[in-house]
């Protein structure tokens, strides 16, 4: 404690009469520390009003749980908590506003001001004036009563809302599960068939209430709990278009050019319509127009797009002759860097894509239908994904190779970079793997060489039987999982076991072994063990991102400029877990020269984790 | 180590204050006027106990008047703070000389039957009030004598105790305060505004030693002035904020009756009836003041330190002073910082929960009146900006 009298504070000015000191106006701050909720509502002084506000937040219990940190989900503010006469909520799927505890809340002192009754009303609620009026008569009293040190505040925006008043299935749910009315409930439970024979049909044929007219094209799809994933108002960061320039004379021009692309997609694998044999007529028209005039429509003459495109097409022609089905990331490394802007257009002129099925997301030569010949089985794609929880582990992250940069070049000219191949000795750059990229792994090649192709192509497994694909997947998963964890010595017995599998699911084997006892849970457990932290069939996040980019119908000529743009986007770079490669990449974004210098000359970056080991 | 903080509380709501006559139980000790608390008074005592445990500087020792109602009031606090209760007749009730019977409080042995295991025997009476009754001057003198004896005894026996709680009666509470603050008699007001020591039932005062009186010698040991030279400040005057019914039965020496006596109650009821004649909705409890009904508003004082990583805290062992609340720019002093305030009306409502944190420290399964929720509604605030001394 400091001495307060010496510094000329009000304490020192207090009235001194003889030896007596009067300190009536000094108030202790050793007060209860209490919590508060800041509501965006006008709550009146009436107790009912306060009670309703508390109710809208889910009651005192919820408020306390959030304030005391027992509930991390935050406080839900329901602006329309009304219930009808049957105690059924009238708006049961209101998306509430979420309030959260304020981190590092500055402590506030709560003052209690007592005034003669009616003073505030007399001054139209203006407290300061009311105090000024009462001050002559010494009729007001001010005492600090508490310190507020913890607050829940509603800073988020309200979510999108959806009304379900006229949706029969929603009403049935509301009248049973929400009202807990037993008669309605009984009817509801009885109406649910034990075995739904038509899960693909509109649910309106199953609802009891036929009075509500709902359009037949409304499938009564229930709303998700949260529509807006940006919970605070979005910072749009409006900026000038980097391509748009305004000259001194006031003339505006756009430097970059966007060209509309016409990549043909086949959405249904089982289509009988056949596959495209010719490029999209619009792109052919543009291309021909370009050839006539010497400039590709929509591009500037100086970028020499047509020239690049033609050069690109020459290379692609050879590539598609050699291999009819490609992954774009592989082609990226083969096409010279300066031709990259034309690649997407060129691909549209030579290839089409399936959006589903065993060849999804790969570029297939026009006129080639992989469903017609077993020869295309080796180009089927398999997807693998390393689990997120493993990716965040720094010890595992360091074992993963960084994916190639956007403008990498293959180390084998004119061919797929060996880093894309899976040979059981290193983790490939990308986990979207065509079957033939797996052949260097002897066990997989053994399975492939013995495989019996199906007589007809299958929507899910292509030309392979499910069993053979399962064997291949299991081996890749096992070996990848080992390598991710830094283990390159595989268990031979395990690999042999995979190769000799007779059933697709091990649970089927277990069924026999366990003397008739079928343990339904067993199935999941087994999967976990063999998963080894790698999932199959799921598209890696990175691949997904790429696939979306490839689907974009616009090609940009100046992709470098756009990439610069993206630098400001938040990434998940964390200096604590970043690998050397990542650090260099981060530097490269700002200063590529220094990054290159560092990359070539530094070899002594040691990670904290390694020091600990 | 030295006594630095003194809390003085009045006992809770007495059973003879209840409006319906059959509810008056006989004094358990058989001593005249030694009535127990009403159920409401017991609830108040629990609320007081919960308040004491919610603050930082908690009493390390409880000393009570030997009268039944004071011991009953001390009991919940003693339980929660896990302290014994010492009895000192120096804290006894004020009886006027013209009273029919001047009662003598029950002895430790009798009281121990009612509060078994909770009372401590070894505490001498610092003063024994005259059995012939006391005038206003007499009780003032009694309290003046009380302090030095009491403090000396306390500091010798319990040198580690810095904070003490005294539980006593309205008249004694005022007289103790006025003597501690070195006033000349019990009727003086504390300041030019006519403020007196508030003494509603179960109200709580806090006296803190003036920091000037504490020093350090060459060895860094704490030095302290002799008790009669120490000065005290009143930093909490009759606090009843923690009581769900607020201030009830305020009394001071101007009332003319002995506090809480049957005469006092009769006079209050008469007055209330008169008031009811004027206003139809006469509140059951008596008003805060003898003059008017009050309304209360809550205002938060917000210091923004403009640093999202650090929070501004209000130190526990400090005080607040305010000036010019009626102006646009009120001055507020918190601890050693002086702030200039700006009135703000918030765009929503802040609801603060008074008893939200108190439960956590209390014993498991302690479900009592203190848990009834109290919500402060805040719509006005004062933003505080630090001002640098010239």
UniProtKB/TrEMBL annotation, chain A:
InterPro entries: TF_IIIC_su-5_HTH, TF_IIIC_Tfc1/Sfc1, Tfc1/Sfc1_N, TFIIIC_tauA_Sfc1. Residues 550-561 have a biased composition (Basic and acidic residues). Residues 225-385 form the Transcription factor IIIC subunit 5 HTH domain. It is found in: Nucleus. One of its GO terms (molecular function) is RNA polymerase III type 1 promoter sequence-specific DNA binding. This is WGS project CCBQ000000000 data, contig 00041. Keywords: DNA-binding, Nucleus, Transcription. Residues 36-162 form the Transcription factor IIIC subunit Tfc1/Sfc1 triple barrel domain. Gene3D superfamilies: TFIIIC, subcomplex tauA, subunit Sfc1, barrel domain. GO terms for cellular component: nucleus; transcription factor TFIIIC complex. Signal peptide: none annotated. Residues 516-534, 562-572 have a biased composition (Acidic residues). Transmembrane segments: none annotated. GO terms for biological process: transcription initiation at RNA polymerase III promoter. It comes from the Eukaryota. Residues 514-534, 547-576 are annotated as: Disordered.
UniProtKB/TrEMBL annotation, chain B:
It comes from the Eukaryota. InterPro entries: His_Pase_superF_clade-1, His_PPase_superfam, Phosphatase_SH3-domain, Tfc7/tau55, TFIIIC_triple_barrel. Residues 281-291 have a biased composition (Basic and acidic residues). Pfam families: His_Phos_1, TFIIIC_sub6. Coiled coil: none annotated. One of its GO terms (molecular function) is phosphatase activity. Residues 292-388 form the Transcription factor TFIIIC triple barrel domain. Residues 269-291 are annotated as: Disordered. Signal peptide: none annotated. This is WGS project CCBQ000000000 data, contig 00058. It comes from Kluyveromyces dobzhanskii CBS 2104.
């Amino acid at each position: 404690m400091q001495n307060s009298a010496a510094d000329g504070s009000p304490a020192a000015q207090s009235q001194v009469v003889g030896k007596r000191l009067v300190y009536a106006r000094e108030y202790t701050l050793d007060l209860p520390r209490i919590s508060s909720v800041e509501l965006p509502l006008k709550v009146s002084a009436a107790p009912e009003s306060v009670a309703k506000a508390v109710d809208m937040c889910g009651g005192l219990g919820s408020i306390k749980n959030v304030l005391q940190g027992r509930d991390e989900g935050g406080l839900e503010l329901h602006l329309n908590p009304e219930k009808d006469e049957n105690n059924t909520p009238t708006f049961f799927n209101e998306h509430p506003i979420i309030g959260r505890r304020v981190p590092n809340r500055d402590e506030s002192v709560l003052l209690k001001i007592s005034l003669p009754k009616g003073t505030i009303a007399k001054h139209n609620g203006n407290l300061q004036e009311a105090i000024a009026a009462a001050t002559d008569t010494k009729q007001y009293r001010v005492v600090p009563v508490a310190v507020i040190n913890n607050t829940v505040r509603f800073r988020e925006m309200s979510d999108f809302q959806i009304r379900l008043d006229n949706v029969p299935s929603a009403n049935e749910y509301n009248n049973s599960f929400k009202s807990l009315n037993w008669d309605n409930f009984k009817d509801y439970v009885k109406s649910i068939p034990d075995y739904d024979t038509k899960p693909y049909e509109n649910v309106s044929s199953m609802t009891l209430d036929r009075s509500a007219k709902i359009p037949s094209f409304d499938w009564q799809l229930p709303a998700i709990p949260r529509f807006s994933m940006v919970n605070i108002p979005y910072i749009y960061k409006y900026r000038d278009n980097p391509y748009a320039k305004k000259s001194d004379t006031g003339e505006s021009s756009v430097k970059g050019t966007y060209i509309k692309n016409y990549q043909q997609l086949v959405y249904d694998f089982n289509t009988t319509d056949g596959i495209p044999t010719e490029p999209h007529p619009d792109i052919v028209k543009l291309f021909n127009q370009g050839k006539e005039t010497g400039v590709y429509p929509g591009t500037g003459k100086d970028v020499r797009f047509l020239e690049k495109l033609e050069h690109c097409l020459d290379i692609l022609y050879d590539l598609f002759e050699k291999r009819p089905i490609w992954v774009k990331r592989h082609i990226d490394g083969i096409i010279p860097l300066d031709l990259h802007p034309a690649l997407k257009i060129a691909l549209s002129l030579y290839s089409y894509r399936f959006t589903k099925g065993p060849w999804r997301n790969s570029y297939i030569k026009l006129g080639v239908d992989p469903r017609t010949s077993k020869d295309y089985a080796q180009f089927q794609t398999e997807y693998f994904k390393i689990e997120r929880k493993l990716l965040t582990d720094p010890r595992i992250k360091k074992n993963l190779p960084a994916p190639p940069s956007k403008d990498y070049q293959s180390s084998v000219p004119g061919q797929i970079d060996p880093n894309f191949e899976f040979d059981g000795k290193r983790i490939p750059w990308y986990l979207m793997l065509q079957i033939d990229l797996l052949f260097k792994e002897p066990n997989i090649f053994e399975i492939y060489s013995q495989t019996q192709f199906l007589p007809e192509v299958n929507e899910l497994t292509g030309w392979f039987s499910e069993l053979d694909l399962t064997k291949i997947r299991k081996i890749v998963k096992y070996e990848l999982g080992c390598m991710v964890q830094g283990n390159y010595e595989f268990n031979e017995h395990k690999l042999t076991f995979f190769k000799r599998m007779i059933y697709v699911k091990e649970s089927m084997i277990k069924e026999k072994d366990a003397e008739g006892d079928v343990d339904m849970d067993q199935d999941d457990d087994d999967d976990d063990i063999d998963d080894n932290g790698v999932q199959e069939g799921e598209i890696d996040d990175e691949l997904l991102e790429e696939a979306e980019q490839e689907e974009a119908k616009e090609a940009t000529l100046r992709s470098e400029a756009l990439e610069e743009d993206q630098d400001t986007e938040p990434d998940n770079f964390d200096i604590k877990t970043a690998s050397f490669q990542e650090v260099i990449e981060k530097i490269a974004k700002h200063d590529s020269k220094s990054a290159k210098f560092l990359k070539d000359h530094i070899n002594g970056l040691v990670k904290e984790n390694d020091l600990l080991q | 180590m030295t006594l630095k903080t003194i809390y003085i509380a009045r006992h809770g709501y007495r059973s003879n204050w209840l409006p319906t006559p059959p509810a008056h139980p006989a004094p358990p000790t058989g001593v005249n006027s030694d009535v127990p608390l009403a159920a409401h008074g017991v609830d108040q005592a629990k609320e007081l106990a919960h308040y004491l445990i919610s603050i930082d500087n908690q009493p390390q020792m409880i000393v009570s008047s030997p009268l039944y109602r004071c011991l009953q009031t001390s009991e919940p606090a003693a339980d929660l703070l896990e302290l014994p209760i010492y009895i000192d007749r120096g804290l006894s009730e004020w009886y006027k000389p013209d009273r029919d019977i001047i009662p003598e409080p029950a002895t430790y042995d009798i009281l121990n039957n009612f509060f078994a295991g909770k009372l401590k025997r070894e505490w001498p009476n610092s003063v024994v009030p005259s059995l012939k009754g006391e005038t206003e001057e007499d009780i003032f003198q009694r309290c003046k004598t009380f302090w030095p004896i009491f403090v000396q005894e306390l500091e010798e026996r319990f040198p580690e105790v810095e904070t003490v709680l005294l539980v006593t009666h309205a008249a004694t509470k005022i007289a103790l305060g006025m003597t501690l603050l070195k006033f000349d008699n019990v009727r003086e007001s504390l300041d030019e505004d006519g403020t007196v020591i508030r003494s509603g039932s179960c109200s709580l005062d806090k006296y803190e030693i003036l920091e000037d009186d504490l020093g350090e010698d060459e060895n860094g040991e704490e030095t302290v002035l002799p008790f009669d030279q120490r000065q005290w400040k009143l930093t909490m005057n009759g606090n009843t904020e923690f009581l769900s019914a607020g201030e009830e039965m305020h009394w001071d020496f101007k009332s003319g009756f002995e506090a809480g006596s049957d005469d006092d109650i009769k006079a209050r009821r008469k007055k209330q009836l008169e008031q009811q004649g004027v206003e139809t909705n006469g509140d059951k409890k008596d008003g805060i003041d003898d003059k008017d009904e009050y309304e209360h508003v809550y205002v938060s004082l917000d210091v923004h330190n403009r640093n999202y990583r650090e929070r501004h805290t209000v130190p526990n062992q400090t005080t607040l002073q305010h000036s010019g609340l009626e102006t646009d720019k009120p001055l507020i002093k918190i601890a050693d910082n002086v702030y200039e305030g700006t009135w703000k009306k918030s765009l929503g409502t802040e609801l603060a929960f008074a008893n939200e944190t108190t439960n956590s420290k209390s014993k498991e399964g302690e479900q009592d009146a203190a848990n009834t929720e109290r919500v402060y509604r805040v719509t006005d605030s004062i933003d505080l900006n630090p001002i640098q001394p010239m």
